[in-house]
Amino acid sequence: MKLAHKVSIITGAGSGQGQAAAVLFAREGSSIVAADIDEDGLKRTEALVREAGGDILTVRCDVSKAADVQAMVRRAKDACGGIHVLYNNAGVLHPKDGYVTDLDEEIWDLVLGVNLKGMYLTCKYAIPVILESGGGSIINTSSLGGLKAGASTAYGASKGGVISLTRNIARQYAPTIRANSICPGPVDTPMMVVAAKKAGPTGGTQGKGPMLERWADPGEVAELALYLASDSSAFVTAANFVIDGGLSAI
Ligand code: NAD
After folding, report:
1. 3-class secondary structure, 86
2. 230 CB less than 6 Å from ligand 1?
3. What is the average pLDDT score of the chain?
4. Active site residue: 87, 120, 155, 173, which one?
5. Whose CA is closest to atom 44 on ligand 1?
6. How much distance in Å is there from the Cα of 143 to the middle of ligand 1?
7. Is the predicted pLDDT of residue 202 greater than 60, yes or no?
8. Which atom, in ligand 1's list, is nearest to the CA of 17?
9. Mean pLDDT in residue range 7-16
10. Who has the most CB within 10 Å: 13, 118, 139, 203?
């Protein structure tokens, strides 16, 4: 098993890619600390992880709130004895995100608060525990929206920031901690429904993609996260991985 005796925090684990990763990481031997604001989603994830024979602690945690993150990390350490993997996957795409001149300050703050400040906070509080635990791997979810120009200003800015934050963390805590970001293209999760509605019938990434002609299954992104979490990627750090079915190449 690729994650035997490891403890993995996965944020946004109540749905989509985070939920798929929780099940996959558990199958690979990791204890799971699943953090999300969606308590019903966490219950579903807990049932799926237990069905797969895994151990899981679910924690209601708003990643944009320092007190929530501190408490979540403390619970993870107390319950599991350490932390080895931090998969920062929680994110929001707001239906009212838009062109910069039309963008309300509160939407900017909300999106940046979850997508970027949330990762700063989880790293701030989890990194000392990962170091105490002998080191580990951080995986931060960016997006094609962090690489390409689009209409969702706050989302794009937050996801661009994630790539830079990740590189800085990789440099600051090397060689004990590796940190990498991933940029998914369209993934078949509830968030894509928001993205497709925002883009309308002709724009954005709501089309099935020019090369592989489909959206990713959340489990396919989880496989990339598993590679980055495990020792299979022992020489990989400060890198950004695009997983988009070829969309950005055209
Ligand atoms: P999703 O909407 O299914 O899952 C996102 C999860 O994050 C939800 O469970 C939600 O409750 C949780 N969340 C939101 N705000 C939170 C907060 N403040 N604190 C804790 N949890 C919070 O979508 P997904 O596709 O699984 O998204 C996972 C990540 O992938 C996100 O960072 C997203 O930006 C990114 N992403 C998604 C796509 C896509 O096409 N779906 C493409 C590129 C990047």
Report:
1. strand
2. no
3. 95
4. 155
5. 143
6. 11
7. no
8. 26
9. 98
10. 13
CATH number at residue 41: 3.40.50.720
Q: What is the whole-number distance in angstroms between the Cα of residue 236 and the centre of ligand 1?
A: 24
On the CB side of 199, CA atoms within 13 Å amount to 17
| Residue 248 token pair | 């950005």
Let me know: does 144 contact 205? Beta carbons within 8 Å. Answer: yes
Q: Which atom of ligand 1 is nearest to the CA of 144?
A: 43
Active site residue 227: no
pLDDT at 23 over 70: yes
Q: What percent of the chain has pLDDT over 90?
A: 91
Backbone angles phi, psi at 56, to 5 degrees: -145, 140
pTM of the model: 0.97
Mean pLDDT of 225-246: 98
Pair of tokens at residue 173: 């805590």
Is any ligand 1 atom within 6 A of the Cβ of residue 37? yes
Q: What is the domain count for the chain?
A: 1
- Alpha carbon of 10 to ligand 1 centroid (Å): 11
Query: Does 14 reside within a domain?
Result: yes
R_g (Cα) of the chain, nearest Å: 17
150-182: pLDDT as tens digits = 999 999 999 999 999 999 999 999 999 999 999
pLDDT of residue 200: 66
d(CA 181, CA 141) in angstroms, rounded, equals: 6
Rounded to the nearest 10 degrees, the angle between the axes of helix 16-27 and helix 218-229 is: 50
